[in-house]
Amino acid sequence: MTATDTGERRRGSDARPLITDLIDEATVESIAQEAWVALVGEDEILVPLPGDAPVDPVSSWVDVVGPWTGSIVLTTGRRTAEELSRALLREASPEVLEEEDVVDAFGEIANVVGGNVKAALPGPSGLSLPEVGEAPAVRNPGDLCRIDVLWRGEPVSISVQGALPPLPTAP
Amino acid sequence: MRALVIDDSRAMRRIVSGILEGLGYETQQAGHGREGLDVLDGGWLPELVCVDWNMPVMDGLQFVSAVRSNPAWRSMTIMMVTSESEQTQIVKALAAGAHEYVIKPFTADAIRDKLALLGLLPQEASL
Amino acid sequence: MTLTTTSFDWVRQLVHRESAIVLQPGKEYLVEARLLPIARQAGVPDVSQFVEKVRTRPDPDSTRRIVEALTTNETSWFRDGDPFTALTSTVLPALLADRGPNERLHIWSAACSSGQEAYTIAMLLEDALPNAASRVSITATDISREMVERTRAGRFSQLEVNRGLPAPMLVRHFTRAGSEWEVAPALRRMVTASECNLAAPFPRMGPFDVVYLRNVLIYFDLPTKQAILRRVRDVMRPDGWLFLGAAETTLGVDDSWERVVVGRSSAYRPLKGK
């Protein structure tokens, strides 16, 4: 819907599907809302509003390989990622949160959101194990479906982004 | 009753184990399918196994096949608990011998409802 | 405006009375989050105003929506499986023996909410009868237009299909549609959804062989319960079967029904000559 209809995009959809042809922001948002309610807490709501970019961003993602190939990437500030991890662990949350606790819990949220995004795409596709760190670069701005939301007032972005660069424009 | 919870995410293992313990289960945890088989080989035999799909070393589908190939473990009920939710994948897991399938994200009620369907709610929790 | 103590206490007492579920103090936020969509549907912008409205002018439909939103038990598939097991083990064989081979069976799911009960019945019959689509028609009604439309759409969220729907039935009778699951067209064709206010004279419908009227009578006063049961009887075949919620009964309400034990469940059948 927000993708610009360039010649590049038209040619792209002939050769291989772009994410904007396969899923829309509303679907990604409803998947994320359900994941938050079930994993983070039943009164945890994502507000569909963009916030300022986090100063200390950290991302978690899973890769999908199939008819469409790319990544589902969650990005937020480090403090927020820690808070999310604590919320996920609830009473099992340790006094001091280790880096590996955050990698584990924040990665699992990417796995849950990513698995459901994958199921909404044409299959069959493979799903990678989650990774946490600096987000993979957006290779093709035309092959991107991104939502920006606020959780407890903090910005969280979820982007479903293709792994392949745009096809070269014909001369 | 006993339940083995296999998931590569420690957070998810704690969540699922917490729900099952709340229902009256005694639980053990494993980080992937191979570790899960080691628990079973060690003689700790549960009524229920909750197993994730995508894991390192040995994934959930391989684990289900391995359990189903051992006649001594036939009475074990296997429930996949995973974000892998393509329809064809659910069919594949059921065909390999999983009894039930819970798609992540789930609520505690979802686990409880599935166990009720399977007749695996410990007596004190079924009221 | 945030929920007042009076409103919250009233909701707590209501939910406890109807479902035995205890809402601890501090759960005001949860009550607000869960009730906001219902308040908006009722045309009230704010949960506190909505609760005040229902508290001072009780209305069974809003009361039921409040309890359902806060307990969520009523909207799961086979969770309370006994009345469904009874359908395939006892009721269906009896009906098939009594009816002609081409006679259609009519089933009513009253107060159907978003349609889980109607589709649960449809799935069971599709699995039990080779020609279910031409043999059975299921009428699903609800007082709320939004619920009727949801039933018609036959689309359920991931969290909804996780609640008490066996996985083999999910993959057999649903297909994935974006982030949701959609009921198979064959089942949707068996189900006709329409609006019906149980507390008012019914539209023309029936006669039904089986009626599911579960977890709804509890919200009405005695004279209304009696009137509803009388009208239900009028749209049922004389040898029909009525299923009520596990905590509901016709005993002491309307003596023109006979209670019969069916498996682990109870059904009610019209008494002859009453």
Could you tell me the mean pLDDT of chain B?
93
How many structural domains does the protein architecture of chain B include?
1
Report mean pLDDT of chain A, rounded to a whole number.
88
Query: Per CATH, what is the topology of chain A?
Result: Chemotaxis protein chec
N-to-C series of helices and strands of chain B: EHEHEHEHEH
- CATH architectural grouping of chain A: 3-Layer(aba) Sandwich
Q: Largest sheet of chain A, if any?
A: 7 strands, antiparallel
Shape of chain B from CA axes?
A: globular
Task: Please identify the oligomeric state.
Answer: heterotrimer
In CATH, the topology of chain B is named: Rossmann fold
Taken as a percent bin, the fraction of beta residues of chain B is 15-25%
CATH class of chain B: Alpha Beta
Q: Mind telling me the C-alpha Rg of chain B?
A: 13 Å
Strand % of chain A is 15-25%
Report the structural category of chain B: alpha/beta
Identify the CATH homologous superfamily of chain B: Response regulator
Helix count from the secondary structure assignment of chain A: 5
Describe this entry's structure for a reader.
The complex is a heterotrimer of chains A (171), B (127) and C (274). Chain A contains five helices and seven strands. With 171 residues, chain A is of the alpha+beta class. In chain A, strands 1, 2, 3, 4, 5, 6 and 7 form a seven-stranded antiparallel beta sheet that branches. The longest helix of chain A is centred in the middle third of the chain and has 22 residues, at 99-120. Chain B has 127 residues and is α/β, with parallel strands linked by helices. Chain B has a five-stranded parallel beta sheet with strand order 2-1-3-4-5, sandwiched between helices. The model of chain B has no long low-confidence stretch (mean pLDDT 93). Chain C contains twelve helices and ten strands. In chain C, a hairpin with a 2-residue loop joins strand 4 (174-177) and strand 5. The termini of chain C are far apart. The mean pLDDT of chain C is 89. Chain A binds chain B through residues 34-35, 37-39, 42, 85, 88-92, 101, 104-105, 107-108, 111-116, 118-119, 123-125, 127-129, and chain B through 8-12, 14-15, 18, 54-56, 82-89, 103-107.
